[in-house]
Structure formats: structure tokens, C-alpha cells
Amino acid sequence: MAGDMSTVGCAALKKSAKQKLSSDKENNSSITNAVGNRKENGHLAMKPPNVPPLNMRGGLRVYKIVILGDGGVGKSAVTLQFVSHNFLDYHDPTIEDSYQQQAVIDNEAALLDILDTAGQVEFTAMRDQYMRCGEGFIICYSVIDRHSYEEASEYRKLIQRVRLTEDIPLVLIANKSDLESLRKVSTEEGRNLANQFGCPFFETSAALRLYIDEAFYALIREIRRKEKQRALGNGTSSEKLHSRRRSRWWRIRSIFALVFRRRRNLN
Fold it and tell me: GO MF terms on file (predicted)?
């Protein structure tokens, strides 16, 4: 997983931001109040509210990522470690949320728009909707929960059923690798499952921040690789390929934000 992959801003994005400094002042304040912008080791953590998508304000390529897995495997902890370098020791398993993180991967700027899904049955209908729009998927299980490992295959089947194809950018991660004394799933079992899926595999620890960045970067590489393959196969540019789902993704994302905001207010 070589390559200079430090998180940076995009020159075009900075230029656009300067031009809109006055009009964006309130939005920037909302972002800061919502989660607090943190800058650690060059990483900018940002969980924006309902503001215009950044790819529309600077031309930065947006990668729409969906994280799937049983409740309690650490999907939210993995996501928050990636975007903020913080370990989340508690998260409401019935809440889905979304995050954005800028990065440079193989010398190419990217904005990762990550949807962290709830592992509850009641969210199945909504899950199918955003799975149709996601460009890449991370399936997460816990090494201390064999059932979550067995369910990983079911999540892959679900993706294939919704997308009607097996050619889907995918990464398999086995979280909580730091809890070795409680391990129920071996590393070899995880590798074998990833080989069946034909995808990269990482044993991660959200608590220790092990292989978190590597897993997300590997997924972006998978998306780019498959986009190039499809473009060569049908003569369509990768920009046209990913833009077909862009507008639907933002519409669904806005609906989810409203639903989850209302749910939090009720709680």
C-alpha cells in the first residue's frame, strides 16, 4: 500500500472557497459547530451539514462509499478514525450517518463521501436505495464475532442482488484485531473469504488505528481500476460513468440526513 497518501486540499477547491468566502461563512461555522474541524498530522476531519456538495464547488472528484456489516462490528469507529483520528467507544447502532474526507491517493486528489450504515433490519429499504448509488463498498466484520464473519457473504450477495452484477469495487475488513485473546475468526479465514470475493483484505483496529487508511485507499484504487476497465470496454469516459449515479446519490443522502435528524430530535 505504497504511495504518498497524506490528506490535503485541492487547489481548485481552495480557489473556489476564497471566491465564496463571504457566502460560505455561515456554512463553515455550522460545520465547525457540528463536529469541530480537527487538523492532526495533516488530516482535515470534516462532517458537513446539509451544504452544497464539494464536487460542485471545486471540481474535486467525489467517491461515494458505503460501509456495510452487522451492528457492533465497529463500522462507525473505523469511519471516524479515518476522518478524524479519534476512537469512538460508543455509537448508537440504529443511526446511519455520513462523513466526508479529502485525500491524495497515488498523486490524485479525491473526496471520499462515506455513508456509515446502521446494522438494523428496519433500515433495509433505505439501504437498498443507497446501495444502488454507491461506487464502492467496505464490508466489515469483527474478529471476535463469528456470526458477523458469516454474514459478510450475505452482504456481498445483497450488493450483487441490488446492483445486478458481481463486478463491484469492494474491500473486506476484519475489525477489532487488537482483541487477540477474544478472537473467534482467524486471519486465514478472512484471507480465504476475501479471495472468494476477489477483493483486498485488511485486519483493522479502530482502537489502535491499524490499517484504517490503507483500507479506504485500497477501495479508491479498486474504484479507479474498475472504472478504467469499463471505460475501455464500452468507450465511455470514467467521468460519464460515475456521474450517472451522482445526482441520485445526493438526493438520497439529503433524504437520509432529514430522517436521521428528525430521529435524533425525537430521542
Answer: G protein activity; GTP binding
